[in-house]
Specification:
Elements: H1 3-23, H2 30-36, H3 41-54, H4 61-74, E1 82-84, H5 86-97, E2 99-102, E3 105-110, E4 113-119, H6 124-127, E5 135-139, E6 142-143, H7 149-156, E7 163-169, E8 177-182, E9 184-187, E10 191-198, E11 201-208, H8 215-228, E12 233-237, H9 246-254, E13 261-267, E14 270-276, E15 289-293, H10 300-310, E16 315-318, E17 326-332, E18 338-347, E19 363-364, H11 377-388
Helix pairs in contact: 8-9, 9-10
Length: 389
């Protein structure tokens, strides 16, 4: 083989190896990688160094790091994907555990700040006069308009015994007001049951406040208690329930549906996965069920609502649900923070995705948050009473 041919072959081999390593920089030896692979961190370091050297006040580099990571995720323009700092992560962990230190209310994001969906009985929020339908506009003097709901609620939470100042607006009031609320250790009531009698029929009403770990077991306990007391039908009240854990949604649905599909998950980088009922149904199909929902019923609540509707197990009563049919994947980061990323869509048994449009009720019932009376529940009860004859 001539020297010329060898030279050409050497060049081609070197080119092929170079192209492969260019696409797999992690396989390069350390010194070579440092020399030949452009490190985007150099530009970041250049900006940080300039700020530290020239900015007129002292700076907190860790704060800049967090802002940089938040900015990357915010560029996705997805309201449900977030980077959470280590401090915010601790509060996030409390959300799914059913315990936290705060003022005791469920909220949803609103363009003005946070809308109050539910105030827990005996909580500091109730003592401060905050009621369902109020809007939280600012926390400790800082506006939360346009602030992500997880970040805004984390500002309200804090160590028990400390106080937080909330600017509150009540629809119909002439102006907003500022209240000082003392935080406490809050045990979130997961499920609560009570009995109603309509046209001589006993109807059990079970409120489910969230889908934290173990929620399906607590709901099961409440339903069984009502059945022992003679409940002939069940209202599952998911109003203001913003969701939680997917497996708890499957577990709750399985209390009413014995077998078959509950929900499927599909994403750009996720193979389709179907979650079926777990064979734990505690009610015979002869027991009629209504799912009562509103605009605060989201995510896991919508999975349960859609599954029971599509499987013919329940009638949906209320107003259109929130419309969050997205799967969040939690990645724990090396700094103690969390990347909460949207990775897929939920699909109901009939193939519908609930993203943006929510679930339309089969029977419309609207509750007025400005009155003490619950206008929607009587509609749900009447719907069941009619089925019982």
């Amino acid at each position: 083989m001539s020297k010329g041919v060898l030279a050409v072959l050497s060049v081609l081999v070197a080119l092929a190896v170079g192209l492969w390593l260019g696409g797999h920089p992690s396989d390069l030896p350390g010194p070579v990688r440092d020399t030949f692979v452009q490190d985007d961190r150099a530009l970041r370091a250049e900006v940080v160094d300039s700020i530290e050297d020239n900015f007129y006040k002292s700076v907190d580099e860790s704060k800049m790091d967090d802002a940089s990571l938040k900015g990357i995720v915010e560029s996705l323009d997805d309201p449900y994907s977030h980077y959470l700092t280590p401090k915010e992560t601790r509060a996030f962990n409390e959300d799914v555990s059913g315990q936290f230190e705060g003022v005791g209310m469920n909220v949803e994001q609103d363009r003005r700040g946070l809308k109050v969906l539910r105030v827990f009985e005996g909580s500091p929020a109730e003592t401060a006069g905050i009621v369902r339908g109020d809007f939280i506009l600012a926390v400790d003097g800082r506006s939360i308009a346009g602030v992500n709901s997880e970040i805004a609620t984390n500002r309200i939470k804090g160590p028990a015994g400390t106080t937080v100042q909330l600017r509150v607006f009540t629809p119909g009031a002439e102006r907003d007001r500022t209240v000082k609320v003392k935080r406490e250790r809050i045990e979130v009531p997961v499920a609560r049951g009570r009995m109603k009698v309509v046209n001589g029929h006993k109807i059990g009403v079970v409120e489910l406040f969230g889908f934290s770990e173990g929620a399906h077991a607590l709901l099961s306990r409440e339903i069984k208690k009502l059945r022992r007391r003679g409940a002939e039908a069940i209202v599952l009240d998911l109003r203001g329930n913003g969701g939680g854990l997917l497996l708890e949604a499957v577990g709750v649905s399985s209390l009413f549906v014995e077998d078959g599909e509950i929900v499927s998950v599909r994403g750009r980088h996720r193979a389709e996965r179907t979650h079926d009922a777990e064979g734990d149904a505690i009610l015979p199909e002869s027991v009629p069920v209504v799912v009562l929902v509103d605009g605060g019923s989201a995510s896991a609540s919508e999975i349960v609502t859609g599954a029971l509707r599509d499987r013919g197990r329940a009638t949906v009563v209320g107003t259109r649900t929130f419309g969050k049919g997205l799967v969040q994947e939690i990645q724990r980061l090396s700094n103690g923070g969390v990347l909460d990323l949207t990775v897929a869509n939920y699909y109901l048994p009939d193939g519908e995705t609930i993203t943006t449009k929510g679930i339309k009720p089969q029977v419309r019932a609207v509750d007025d948050p400005n009155t003490k009376r619950d206008e929607a529940l009587p509609v749900a009860l009447a719907t069941l009473a009619q089925k019982l004859g």
